[in-house]
Design a protein that fits this description.
It is a single chain. By secondary structure, the chain is an alpha/beta fold. The protein has a domain of 103 residues: Glucose Oxidase, domain 1 (3-Layer(bba) Sandwich). It contains 4 helices and 10 strands. The strands form 2 sheets. The protein has an 8-stranded mixed sheet with strand order 3-10-9-5-6-7-8-4, with helices on one face. The protein has a two-stranded antiparallel sheet with strand order 1-2. The longest helix is centred in the first third of the chain and has 20 residues.
Length: 168
């Protein structure tokens, strides 16, 4: 949906206000929709591929298994961030735990000893960047943010997909 015409890359104030309002309505509609539990795709040759989420993690567990997407093993204190703007709380060597990531999170990866993400797969932002940075990473752990607390000591195994709480 394109509202307002640009003149040499510039929108009038009224056109800009209308575009902002239209995008707010669209985003509101998207937020009101429930995300599907899994995706099914048919290939050109008739094959079917599915991508199902992991089972929700349980708070009483001491170890969880997700999708391994990084390399090696990292240990550190948990730092739960819901948005990259909270990044000032992340200390060098912490394990970053997030709901998902996008390019706005990338600078935080440089400080972490590992990454744990509730959503995502092999081709998600966090997985791809973590491989480039050789960062131990496990994704697709729905509910993990509710199971861990800031300061918990954990081990993230980017090869096996296991996140394990370490007893103090």
């Amino acid at each position: 949906m394109q509202i307002g015409r640009t003149v040499e890359g510039q929108l009038s104030f009224c056109a800009l206000a209308a575009r902002i309002e239209a995008r707010r309505r669209v985003f509101g509609q998207w937020e009101a929709q429930d995300a599907p539990d899994h995706f099914v795709a048919e290939s050109a040759n008739g094959g079917v591929a599915t991508a199902c989420p992991a089972s929700p993690v349980q708070a009483h567990d001491a170890a969880w298994r997700g999708v391994p997407t990084g390399t090696g093993v990292g240990r550190g204190r948990v730092c739960i961030l819901r948005h990259p703007d909270e990044g000032e709380r992340l200390q060098a060597g912490d394990i970053l735990v997030a709901p998902s990531t996008d390019p706005g999170w990338t600078h935080l990866f440089l400080k972490t000893a590992g990454l744990v993400v509730e959503t995502g797969g092999y081709l998600s932002h966090g997985a791809i960047v973590a491989r480039e940075f050789a960062l131990p990473t496990v994704v697709n752990l729905p509910g993990i943010m509710g199971c861990l607390r800031d300061g918990d000591e954990v081990e993230v195994d980017g090869t096996t997909g296991q996140v394990r709480r370490i007893a103090p």
